[in-house]
Amino acid sequence: MNAEIIAVGSEMLTPWRQDTNSLYVTERLNQLGVAVNFKTVVGDKPKHLVDAVRIALQRVDIVVTIGGLGPTEDDLTREAVAEALKASLKRNHELIAQLYARAATRRMTLTRNNEKQADVIEGAVVLENPNGSAPGQWLDTVYGEHRKLMLMLPGPPSELKPMMDEQCMPRLRKVLPKRYIATRVLKAALIGESVCDARIAPLYKEFTDVETTILAHLGDIQVNLMCAKPALDLARARVDSLASKIEEELDDFLYSSQGETLEQIVLYYLEMKGATLSAAESCTGGLISERLTSISGSSRSFVGGAVVYSNELKSEFADVPPSVLERHGAVSKETASALAEGIRERCDTTLGVGVTGIAGPTGGTPEKPVGLVYISVSDGKQTDVVERRFSGDRARIRAYAAQTALDLVRRKLM
Fold first, then answer.
1. Domain around 92
2. What percentage of residues in the chain have a pLDDT greater than 70?
3. Residues 330, 333, 336, CA angle at the centre, nearest 5°?
4. Could you tell me the pLDDT band of residue 108, with boundaries at 50, 70 and 90?
């Protein structure tokens, strides 16, 4: 079974609002083994709405509309679905009475346009909405020669979520064939998206029943695997088999096989080894510390550190010798090494990480351009330092630097 979600509302075609309800609905449908093949955002124009519903009915088994069930002139989902199905709309007087009763309990005056919320499509089951005024509708119908399920849900999340969970999910379980979806998320750090795909494509192409999606973001590669089968153990077996092959191929680049973040993995290794970490950050401005401390319980392994932007604080907080700064400059492998060693000793931790660089857009020179970053990790016995040249704006360079630093710590712990 497959589905399409139609999010209704012209506001979602502007830069100021976006559809998030579809993520929730997708998650619930996936739990029932239903794959969402399409998501459509359509404005409040009657013809566009009707066209969107007709197209969806032609290509999927389940159509879910979100929004457009309210009392205003631009709430047109009921009318559009009725026209697409060539079905009639009938005003339900019991629903009208409920609307007026609801308004009375809230000491509100109900205007006549609210009554359109009681228009029910021929053959539809009304989905009660105790959290709002607009009821939803459920249709089990035939379009062309095929059976279709139509779910019409309100737009506010506080109304949509309980309606989906309490009224739609039980109905779907009764009518859908047993099917289960298994998923896995694998993550790799600091490997190019094209390089990653070139290495694993021969593997996932052999698993035609597993959907593989590769996403890249700021030094992080996410490989999503999804498989649907009549039994959950069959779906899991296929996903796990492909995941195992990908893990072997990506080797040290892979840091997570269950969707964990890089900072979670770093903290996991620190705790497993009984080790601690401190950080001296210049160009990253605390991004490494922020990522680590976003994880509950991180204080067991990450003790803290310092943002040392000025040369004076590099010396005062991380014991960088002034002679190193004078001879090599603030952005140098020598300063990065001194930052890692100094903060480790100052904080009395197993490992210290130091970062210094030029995040731009100003401050670069021909010898030391914008994007030049030095990252160092020290364990007291050996200090490793790498030079990287990142492209992009200030935020991108800083994010890449923090990602690289965390990955170097992970590799050091491995």
1. 2-175
2. 100
3. 65
4. confident
